[in-house]
Amino acid sequence: MNTHVAEDNIRIPDEAIREGVDRETIETVQAMAGKYKYGWETEIPTEYAPKGLNEDIVRLISEKNGEPEWMLDWRLKAYRRWLEMKEPRWAMLTYPEIDYQDQYYYARPKSMAEKPKSLDEVDPKLLATYAKLGIPLKEQALLAGVEAPEGERKVAVDAVFDSVSVGTTFKEELKKAGVIFCSISEAIREYPELVQKYLGSVVPQSDNFFATLNSAVFSDGSFVYIPEGTRCPMELSTYFRINAENTGQFERTLIIADKGSYVSYLEGCTAPKRDTIQLHAAVVEIVILDDAEVKYSTVQNWFPGDEDGKGGIYNFVTKRADCRGDRAKVMWTQVETGSAITWKYPSCILRGDDSQGEFYSIAIANNYQQADTGTKMIHLGKNSKSRIVSKGISAGKAQNTYRGQVSVHPKATGSRNYTQCDSLLIGDQCGAHTVPYIEVKNNSSRCEHEATTSKVDEDQLFYCRSRGMDEEEAVALVVNGFCKEVLQALPMEFAMEAQSLVAISLEGSVG
Amino acid sequence: MALAQVKQDALTARLQGLSAPAKGWTAAARASASDRLAAQGLPTRRDEYWRYSDPAQLTKPEVSGAATDLAPSFAALDAVKLVFTDGVFDASASDDPALAGVELLSLAGQADIHWAQGLYGQLETRGSSPVERPLAALNTAYATEGVLIRVTGQAAKPVSLIYTQKSASSDVILHHVVKLEEGAEITLLESGTPGARFNTVLEVDVASNARFHHIRTQGPDADRRGVTHIFAHIADNALFKSFTLTAGGRLTRNEAILEITGDDSVAHVAGTVLGDGKDFLQDDTIFITHASERCESRQVFRKVLKNGATGVFQGKILVKQGAQKTDGYQMSQSLLLDEDAQFLAKPELEIYADDVKCSHGSTSGAIDETALFYLQSRGVPKRTAQALLVLAFLAGTLEEIEDEAIAAEVHARLEDWLHGLDG
Predict the structure, then answer these.
(1) What's the sign of the alpha-carbon dihedral B113, B114, B115, B117?
(2) Which of A10, A315, B12, B339 can pair with A339 through a Cys bridge, CB separation 3.0 to 4.6 Å?
(3) Residue B15, Cβ neighbours under 10 Å: how many?
């Protein structure tokens, strides 16, 4: 696990680590010592589209991806629409105006010009990058840190580097099960009827400013189709890496779970440390048919900017799942620790009767980070159920906002929602905010909403300190306890990573 | 641009029916309010703070309604009664405005009132940021009637403002100012309907160690359209409590904007609402700012809604940096008695201090079937059991009223009006 142990400025005597104290958390805190672990850059020749955004750039992206005419038309329509739209400013986020012409909208490693036929042909530098990030692009490997008997827990990975997908593992094995897992650019070429049927059907082109921008310029992303009655034989994952400078990443993910199917999908992301801000505007669409279930887990760890608030990723993401069928089920789990600006509301449209949506979130904002994140639960089907558990943690000079909507329509009788959002403040310079909208339009449905805001419990801290932990570790431990409910909802690999991230993100927040 | 134009056009149309702002000691405050109003225009449904209640009925130039004949709520209580009929002070129907330790004046009558000069429109201005409240600015600019109350000691009995409405088209703007000096205490009662349409502002300045109690009933007239605003400034060791019972009405928007700037103070806003019918919409919009240490605030609202009635709650607690040891609590609950009733809530927290305890809760749902079943199993007929459960639910907020006689009076009104709801 601790291959990156470099600094040793936090030392805990072994005897301090006793029963009930999570050794892993402490070791990771020791290991990372407050550094953004993924801030390095891969030096690799990269080709860019000209800076700025216009119809030619949209055409160029489409051409680079070898897209059919209908896709280009779709993009251009979105682009023209976007020109008429205004950037939303209702979130509790303050940031300077974004110059959309001062960005590159397409960047790919030169070695990717000729699409590699298999992973063996991929530029070793790229493979090394993912290896360093702990993401195995070899088919026999597992995600770092997990010991499991061979063949038991496999994770298929689609690795996206700047604007292109580098490769997708376990494709053949998945194919045998009927599962399609590939980059979206490949899907547009290979499975046009599926893409045409579902693309934009959950997040319409004109949904919002950033989704429309994405519709025009998305360069790559992942595509998943799970056929009827299939339980995906392994977990699927996409890892997004921004490497090139001044480059925005606009990925698009489309997941379709046909009747009675199941898939667990993981998403991770990192970027190098830079002084300038970088734009990330993704769209994730999930279609879930009768009796199908999708679990979507994210650990968002984009570069958050430095301690003085310089640099970082501006993360504007639209994620939505449409439970189209009866008894369809979706579960969003997110750990948001990175990004200078987070604007993200993974939502559930509970259209089918007895459909179910869950949202578990940990959002941590430290230093000058600002996060405005939450969810929407739109109850349209009868007896639909939703559950929201959100844990927001603010430290340093950060602002953290939970913004959520629960809407129960008149016809969604017998529906049920439970919402819990808790905020934790560490230090007196930060802010924690809660903006829930609760709209109940029939009487057989029940909605409950609870929210609390508090500081780290002094008694718990004192207890930890009395056991020999220093303040920072004590805070990390207490915060991990505060987040437990959400951490438990994550797949095992992610839960471990998330737990250590919680500790790291809070480095420097006390004392 | 288009929206701004709509707001400006609405304002122009609205102002045509109003006479120019009065001159005198309020001139400066009115001029400033007019400027703000001109810059903001009138609100529309597209404003974030009007997303659940369409303000059109409050902003359109013409007024339509029906005259009401309500029995006053606090008739049996010993109080100094001041009567406003269709927004005009009715001296003949009112008591002699004499009460030891209390100065009672009319906004219309006074040439120069020094103590009120520093308050009129001032608290409204402070409360109109960061959220614009153009209807309150309109009130400050155009109000001609209202009562000015200065309390220097313990008021021996409450001051009761009784509103009667005789005209089906009266368009009433009332602006009251209450100033409690250090250690003073008073209870202010309000009941009845000020006009076919009304817009009221109540500015309350609570000095150190002072205590202000406000109990209000609205209803049960069916046609009421009105917006009320309370703007309060609360100093240290002070107490502010406001309770409202609402029944009937088409559109009743009750805003309370409280700012606590002194340490160790308490501020409570509570309400009980009975809503019946598709045309019913009642909206509580609360904004409490904590700018000092160790203060407590409570927002407690319970609403019973039936036959397509809509209840709205938009509550906010803002805890400023340094307002440590704040204890803020917000609870909005609704009981939906049939399929088409609606409850729309936005309970917000905005917190910039770490050593605070703030929470909110919001629930909505039908009557508890188990409780109903229990009562029925004890031989209580279903209708009675239901009425009992509804009463028990609503009566919970009445605990916010400290004075027992007043609480009993409000409870009696609640039972009466609930009975009307069943019929």
Answers:
(1) positive
(2) A315
(3) 18
Residues of A in contact with B334 (CB under 8 A): 440
- Sole residue written with tokens 């209390």: B102
Pairwise CA distance, residues A6 & B51, whole Å: 54
Q: What number of C-beta contacts closer than 8 Å exist between A and B?
A: 120
> Taking CB atoms and an 8 Å limit, are A427 and B324 in contact across chains?
no
Instruction: Supply the DSSP symbol for A279.
Output: E
Chain B residue set in contact with A, beta carbons under 8 Å: 48, 321-322, 324, 334, 336-366
Of A401, A381, A399, which Cα lies nearest the Cα of A290?
A381
Residue B389: inside a domain, yes or no?
no
* Residue B324, both tokens: 């440590």
Cβ-Cβ contacts under 8 Å for B28 (sequence gap 6 or more): none
The per-residue pLDDT string of chain B (423 residues; one tens digit each, 9 = 90 and over) reads 578 899 999 999 999 878 877 778 899 999 999 999 999 999 999 999 999 999 999 999 888 888 888 888 898 899 999 999 999 999 999 999 899 999 999 998 766 778 888 899 999 999 998 999 999 999 999 998 999 999 999 999 999 999 999 999 999 999 999 999 999 999 999 999 999 999 999 999 999 999 999 999 998 988 899 999 999 999 999 999 999 999 999 999 999 999 999 999 999 999 999 999 999 999 999 999 999 999 999 999 999 999 999 999 999 999 999 999 999 999 999 999 988 899 999 999 999 998 999 988 899 989 988 999 999 999 999 989 999 999 999 988 999 999 999 999 999 999 999 887 654
Tell me whether residue B418 is in a domain: no
Q: Which residues of A touch B (CB under 8 A)?
A: 90, 92, 410, 413, 423, 425-455
Q: Which tokens in the block code for residue A491?
A: 């797949």
Distances (CA, A) of B295 to A454, B185, B234, B237, B323: 15, 19, 10, 9, 8
Of residues B347, B351, B357, nearest to A431 (C-beta)? B351
Inspect the interface and report whether the beta carbons of A438 and B48 lie closer than 8 Å.
no
User: pTM value?
Assistant: 0.89
Q: Where are the domains of chain A?
A: 1-33+460-511, 39-109+126-144+152-344, 366-455
Instruction: Report the C-alpha gap between A434 and A422 in whole angstroms.
Output: 9
Amino acid sitting at position B411: H
Domain count within chain B: 1
Roughly what angle, to the nearest 10 degrees, separates helices A492-505 and A471-487?
150
- Name the strand (E) or helix (H) holding A172: helix A171-176
Q: How many CB atoms lie within 10 A of CB B187?
A: 21
- Cβ contacts of A429 on chain B, cutoff 8 Å: 321
Evaluate whether residue B419 is within a structural domain. Answer: no
Q: H or E segment at A130?
A: helix A124-132
Buried b (16+ CB within 10 A) or exposed e, A92-111: ebeeeeeeeeebbbbbbbeb
Which residue in A444, A447, A452 is closest to B359 by CB distance?
Answer: A452
End-to-end CA distance of chain B: 49
Q: Per the domain annotation, does B211 fall within a domain?
A: yes
Show the domain range for B208: 2-366
